[in-house]
Amino acid sequence: MLAAAAIAALAHRRQLLDTGGAVAAMLLGPALVATGGWWIGAILVVFFLTAALLPEHGDGAPSRTWRQVLANGGPALIFAAGYQLTGHDALLTGAAATIAATTADTWATEVGRAIG
Q1: What is the full DSSP assignment across 73-84?
Q2: In the chain, which end has fewer C-beta atoms inside a 10 angstrom radius, N or C?
Q3: Tens of pLDDT along the chain (116 residues)?
Q4: Using only C-alpha atoms, what is the Rg of the chain?
């Protein structure tokens, strides 16, 4: 929970998340680790850290809200919870894939803003 709070605070400070988005990330991150294990948490941390390292857009683009955090992380949580219930490894792959899609979308958006 402390790691999730630190990462959400960094994302909030970098204006990647608004306050509601930071709170949602602090809840979603530990829930993903609890259901999907530490390697899902590690993938999530890589997503947040790489997003924080992308160039700041500075164009007044809004921070991501709790709704966006839930829309991006919710499917991973559903897959991870399914894994917890069934033990089917394919569901962990689904969780990782949804985080990968979120990462690609975030990188494309931020890089596009930086060069556009």
Answers
A1: HHHHHHHHHHHH
A2: C
A3: 888 898 889 888 888 899 999 999 999 999 999 999 999 999 988 988 887 787 665 555 668 899 999 998 999 999 999 999 999 999 999 999 999 999 999 889 888 888 87
A4: 14
The interaxial angle of helices 89-115 and 19-36, nearest 10 deg, is 150
Residue 112, pLDDT score: 85
Question: Looking at this protein, which amino acid is placed at residue 64?
Answer: R
Closest among 46, 29, 37, 49 to 80, alpha carbons compared: 37
Classify each residue of 10-40 as buried b or exposed e, where b means 16 or more C-beta atoms within 10 Å of its C-beta: bbbeeebbbebbbbbbbbbbbbbbebbeeeb
Q: How many CB atoms lie within 10 A of CB 112?
A: 10
The answer to whether the pTM exceeds 0.90 is no
Helical H segments across the chain, by residue range: 2-13, 19-36, 38-53, 66-86, 89-115
